[in-house]
């Protein structure tokens, strides 16, 4: 009974590199992002992990990260479920803007509030709390049962959708979770107890 859950934020994307708000815009991985995804797969392989099922968002950068990880593990045919419930937070009117340009338009303080508050959404977009409102039910009803039945489950998604999930798993407050940084391409390995609480957590850094 492994009850193992691995969360991986996608590798560096083209818009991470350009300092743009990405959100639901569908952008590709950079060469570095591809290398980060493959390295994540290699670190999981070194831990002797094999997955029973994988979940990812419907955005290319997460899908490709998932595919690279599974290729490194020799599991290219593994059942992979894609759902927009795992998509990145929707940045609304900020999507596609350079972060410096957004600060020039709305002011540094306002942009900081949109980026780093828990429950204040940018215009036309989602707050982290809004993101959690779609991630948490999906996790509880669709992902968690595979883990609790003894499976080893991979979730390749995004900084904010995973931040919302980690908030629930680790019991963080809204203030605590917005301060938490999640590096691209670094697997977070959870082992769960039978009652769904966390038995252990490990960051698989290079």
What does this structure look like?
Catalyzes the interconversion of 2-phosphoglycerate and 3-phosphoglycerate. Its EC number is 5.4.2.11. The record marks 158 as: Transition state stabilizer. Substrate binds at residues 9-16, 22-23, 61, 88-91, 99, 115-116, 159-160. Belongs to the phosphoglycerate mutase family. BPG-dependent PGAM subfamily. There is one protein chain. With 206 residues, the protein is of the alpha/beta class. The protein has a single domain, classed as Phosphoglycerate mutase-like (Rossmann fold, 3-Layer(aba) Sandwich). It contains eight helices and six strands, in the order E-H-H-E-H-E-H-H-H-E-H-H-E-E. A six-stranded mixed sheet has the order 3-2-4-1-5-6. Strand 2 (53-56), helix 3 and strand 3 (80-82) form a beta-alpha-beta unit. Helix 2 packs across helix 3 (60-72), helix 4 (99-106) crosses helix 5 (108-116) and helix 6 (128-148) packs across helix 7 (159-170). It is globular and about 50 Å long. The two termini are 27 Å apart. The model has no long low-confidence stretch (mean pLDDT 97).
């Amino acid at each position: 009974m492994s009850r193992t859950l691995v969360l991986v934020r996608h590798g560096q994307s083209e818009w991470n590199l350009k300092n743009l708000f990405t959100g639901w815009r569908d952008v590709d991985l950079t060469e570095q992002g591809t290398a980060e995804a493959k390295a994540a797969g290699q670190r999981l392989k070194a831990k002797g992990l094999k997955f029973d099922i994988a979940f990812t968002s419907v955005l290319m950068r997460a899908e490709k990260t998932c595919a690279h990880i599974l290729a490194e593990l020799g599991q290219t045919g593994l059942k992979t479920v894609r759902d927009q419930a795992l998509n990145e937070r929707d940045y609304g009117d900020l999507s596609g803007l350079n972060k410096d340009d957004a600060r020039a338009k709305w002011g540094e303080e306002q942009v900081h509030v949109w980026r780093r508050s828990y429950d204040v959404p940018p215009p036309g977009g989602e707050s982290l709390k809004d993101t959690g409102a779609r991630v948490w039910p999906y996790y509880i009803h669709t992902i968690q049962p595979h883990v609790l039945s003894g499976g080893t489950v991979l979730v390749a998604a995004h900084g904010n959708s995973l931040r919302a999930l980690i908030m629930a798993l680790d019991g963080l407050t809204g203030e605590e979770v917005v301060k938490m940084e999640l590096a691209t391409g670094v697997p977070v390995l959870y082992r769960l107890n039978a009652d769904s609480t966390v038995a252990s957590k490990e960051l698989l850094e290079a």
